[in-house]
Amino acid sequence: MRIYVHGGDPPLTVIVRLEDAAATLADAAAAFAAAARRRGRDVPEPAAFEAAGGARLEAGSRAADVLKDRDDLFLLVGADAGAPAAAPPVAPVPAPQPAAASNPPAAPHQAGTWGGLPAAPPAAVSSLLARAEAAAAGGRPRVAAQALRGALLQSPGHPEASARLAQLLLSAGRPADALPHARAAARASASAAAAPAAAGAPGGAEARAEARQLLGDCLLAAGDAAGALDAFREALQEAPTAQDGPPSGFELDLRMRCARALHAAGGPANAAAAGRLTMAALAASDQTHADALLLFAELALERGQADDAARVALRLLPQAPAEARVRAALGAAIETPDGLRAALEDIGAGPESSEALAFVAAAARDAGAVAAAAELAARAAAAAPGRAALALLLAHARELLPDPGGAVAAVLDWCSSAMAAQSGEPGDGGGEAAAAAAALPLKDAAALLSSLPPLPKGRAASLDWLLTGMPAAAVPVAGHQPDKQQDPQQTGQQPHTCKQQEEEDQQQQQERQQEEQQEEDDQQEKQPPPRRVRYSDAQLDALALLFTAAKVLFASGALPAAAALCAALEAPRAASEAELHNTAIRNEAAYFGCVAQLLARHPPPALHSAGAGKAASSGACAGTGTADAGAGVAGERPLYVLGDSHCLPVAWRHVTLRGERRLLRPLLVTGVKAWHLRRGGSFYPARQFWATAAALPRGAEVVLVVGEIDAREGLLQALEGLKYDSLEAAIDAVAAAYASALERLCRGFGLRVFAHPAPPALPEAASLVCALNAALRARASEAATAGLAVRWLDFEAGLLEAHPAASKEARQGGGGSEPDGSSGGAGPQLRREFCLDGTHLSPAYLPLLEEALNAAAASGFDSL
Asked: Which terminus of the chain has a lower count of CB atoms within 10 Å, N or C?
């Protein structure tokens, strides 16, 4: 069985799989503690065990006897482990009564009862309500919901528990699930009007109005605008009204909810009524009511008044920067020329406006308005050219367009400003730039970046940098010796298959690693340990900016420049006193580490300029070879690899597909999840993904690789955030988004898709990745059956092996678990030879990919 174990401070949740039927709750706690230690956490021994409903359990109890599969178990320590809340008393069996007339009138509520049921002692429910409140305040809605459900088990229909649970589910985006609880709270409030002293009953007209408001909110979110309007009008009738003077804030809130319901109902008459209510609320609040301002902006957008909408959204943004509706209104407004012009006029363009420009750019980016975000970021960087943080915002915004050449230009411009500041030239942010650049190789970086030709914006995996940047011989990378093999065509040998190449590569890699380790040991003996540096925030931003340049260079084919920049940045990276993955630039540092390892230990073939000859036959499959092995690359048909960072290990390498040598061209979409690609998704990775897909020629073949980030962080975050009640439901939602993406790629863009499994590279998430892959495989098969040009690449099993250490643990102690949803060693783990950095696959898996591609092509794919 599998249970969710909660404990620790800060809170930690671990999915524990108990394979042994005799496993106890103490075994589950031990597995939880082991998983916490693997994450660098020490958790105290629990003083008490508690089920979701509040019942106390004994440590020696068999888990199978006291819990069901996928139940929650709370490990309590300290004050939380005090005496449990008292259980509700059992109602006595009433004595027989004389026969009564049929259909007697219902008895009124009596004190101490609710809905005719015996009330639990106040302490029992109050304890669970308090626990729910603390969990919700601590950002643990799933735990809060479990406590509220426990309260409802003890006191069915309890109004406060019902209302709180409805609010939690509504906030989690589950209005249909929230509705029954909102209805229960509304019924309870209506019943309480006749018996205000009833136990737990809300009292007063305002409380009844709040219950109707909550019901209306749920109905409106569920798409029932008419029902919501009725509920809001009933709430207005219940709400206390001011006899003299302006309406209260609560009354204005209810009026604006009526306006929203009218607007959602559609039709000219409803739209006019919504507009009148909105203008009245603005007049009554001296144009300060936030919801009235937001609806005004949305109505202005519908009427083509983007400039007014932009100005109002800008006014709201500082008040509610995390409000999705505010960001959406802003993004929709400034995507238009009039809206963007109005926003720029309001913000200004001087140095004092740089922070405001950056703030609005980030909000626009999150709303999916990536072109406007790039323009705003460019204005911010121009207003303060010495600020590395602003240059970094601009570089990332240009990546989204996609415009890798523009991203590199943003880095180069900052390098020039920083070098000018170092030489004493005046400029905005010059002092900060000079300090940030003190430990960085800016001259080397600027020389590398300025040597590249312009790269056209929007071209998918352009070869310009690859072809113009390649020398006529293999390019050595810092810490890496060029491969010793020769092109088989020049020696008269038969072309290598990927399997043969893999064996040679492994031998050469072992030799190379031994040589590099020896050189490193020799250097350490000769040199004192490097001095550690505590980088300032500005220095970290500058480092992240150069890390980003290395990533963009590699993904765009400027391999020698990327290798040289990685070599130049290795010393300042290693000098950081803090582990960079624990800083604000952890994402940029992770990408840099991946690219640096690929270039140093698994460099792609050194390809050189176009027209150097006919396309070579199969060779250099797993990333080795000489310049001649890549001759004629411009004439090779591309096989695009579209997706997250897992497209990098195979980038700029070759496979043989249907007997034809194909160049794997990366189309990197930073941070994209399968969930982002759902219908209606507008988060910026989705915008970059679809813009990239749109730039490909119809009929192009694409390897789609997404899903690993969903498994690593998205699934359990959604589960803990109460988006779903089970892991299976969360996986199914991601798989549905994936299926939608497959259909759009094929039908909308005319692409032919090879579906790559999500790589199970991270040990802690391997089991979750495998579970998600099973769902993705099923969706890909359904798409193929429906006639779409989709084939699943079935090679995941070749990547995996059983984990011997974890298997031993399972035999000894009833099973273990890993955080983030894996089940310890019960599930398979990535084979060591395919591991690059703990998160990505090594290019050594390329033969498996090539074999799966050919198998998929032979399965009727070419006839579609």
From this structure: C
Tally Cβ neighbours within 10 Å of residue 239.
21
Q: How many domains does the chain have?
A: 2
Per the CB < 8 A criterion, the answer to whether 737 and 787 are in contact is: no
Q: How many angstroms separate the CA atoms of 351 and 244, rounded?
A: 49
Q: CA 135 from chain center: how many Å?
A: 23
**Confidence band of 794 (pLDDT split at 50, 70, 90):** very high
Instruction: Give the pLDDT confidence of 413-463 residue by residue, as tens digits.
Output: 999 999 998 877 655 555 677 777 777 899 999 999 999 988 877 665 578
Residue of 730, 800, 733 lying closest to 766 (CA atoms): 800
**What gap in Å lies between CA 854 and CA 864, rounded to an integer?**
15
Give one word for 652, left, alpha or beta, with left for phi > 0 and alpha for psi -120 to 50.
left
Structure tokens given for 21? 């039927």
What CATH number is associated with residue 663?
3.40.50.1110
Integer Cα distance of 53 and 67 in angstroms: 11
439 falls within a domain: no
Residue 17 belongs to some domain of the structure = yes
Question: Does 771 reside within a domain?
Answer: yes
The pLDDT score that the predictor gives to residue 816 is 40
pTM for the full predicted model: 0.80
In degrees, rounded to 5, the angle at the alpha carbon of residue 390 between the alpha carbons of residues 389 and 393 is 90
Predicted pLDDT of residue 8: 75
Q: What is the CATH number of the domain that holds 65?
A: 3.10.20.90
Which of 49, 81, 113 delimits the end of a domain? 81
Give me the domain span that covers residue 64.
2-81
Give me Rg for the CA atoms of the chain: 31
Q: Of 21, 54, 81, which residue is a domain's last?
A: 81
